[in-house]
Amino acid sequence: MENVEQRITQLCEQLNLHAYRYYSLDDPVVSDKEYDQLMQELRQLEADNSLLVTLDSPTQRDGAPPLSQFEKVVHSIPMTSLGNAFDDDDMRDWRLRITHLLLEEVPIGWVVEPKFDGLAVALTYDNGVLVCGATRGDGTEGEDVTANLLQEAGLHYHLLVTDCLHAGRVLINDYSATNPYPSAEAINLPRNSRDLKDYLRK
Q1: How many Cα atoms are found within 13 Å in the side-chain-facing hemisphere of 194?
Q2: Same domain membership, residue 130 and residue 197
Q3: Would you call 26 helix, strand, or coil by DSSP?
Q4: 186 assigned to some structural domain
Q5: What is the mean pLDDT of the chain?
Q6: Does 115 participate in catalysis according to the annotation?
Q7: 34 lies in some domain
Q8: pLDDT tens for residues 93-127?
Q9: Residue 20 needs a FRET pair 20 to 30 A away by CA distance; which of 34, 140, 185, 190 works?
Q10: For 146-164, how does the pLDDT look when each residue is reduced to its tens digit (9 = 90+)?
Q11: Torsion sign, CA atoms 38, 44, 48, 49
């Protein structure tokens, strides 16, 4: 048990550091796959040793706290992140969980598409007018990026509804078009479109 507790503590420290570097510094040092593997190991250890789960564990939250340079926005509905499946067993377990949520047995169809990354945002409309755009942050509290989002040409500023809340993602179609210095190593620019979404929100 002592070795398990030590490993859980070690994983929590590593994941907290990686989350801070990714969400706050925009400077990750591990790949998404490596991060997900560490998180999966921690989830499994906590599932097998429930008494060792702490409230500040990385498994108990999504994202990271809002950055200090932005006004904070409290989400009216928590914004959670998607889960992961790494092999056939994970997919079968996920399908079983879905079928258990249904009130009756019905045929289930699936749509599969390439995974894409983007900046998760919540858009709040009041009387059909966009009044606030916020990042996910830690899932409970995000960053007010309304002014930045208003620069997006594809964003709808008015809707034919009264009050509503939309959750979605800000995507970048052509990363190369946003980087005027693709070969300038001395300039601290994002390395890919995943990092660029956080770079541009600032």
Answers
A1: 9
A2: yes
A3: coil
A4: yes
A5: 77
A6: yes
A7: yes
A8: 888 888 887 777 778 788 887 776 677 888 998 88
A9: 185
A10: 887 876 656 777 787 777 8
A11: positive
More confident residue, 29 or 158: 29
> In the block, which residue shows the tokens 């702490």?
54
Residue finishing a domain among 60, 82, 98:
60
Catalytic residue among 72, 115, 197, 202: 115
> What is the Cα–Cα distance from 67 to 142, expressed in whole angstroms?
9
Q: What is the CATH number of the domain that holds 55?
A: 1.10.287.610
pLDDT score of 188 = 56
Q: Which range of residues forms the domain containing residue 56?
A: 2-60
Which own/partner contact pairs does 178-184 have at CB distance under 8 Å and 24+ positions apart?
Answer: none
pLDDT at 186 over 50: no
**Residues 147 and 133 sit within 8 Å (Cβ to Cβ):** no
pLDDT digits (tens, 9 = 90+) for 78-97: 887 777 788 888 888 888 88
Q: Report yes or no: 46 and 8 within 8 Å, Cβ to Cβ.
A: yes
Q: Would you say residue 79 lies in a domain?
A: no
How many domains, the chain?
2
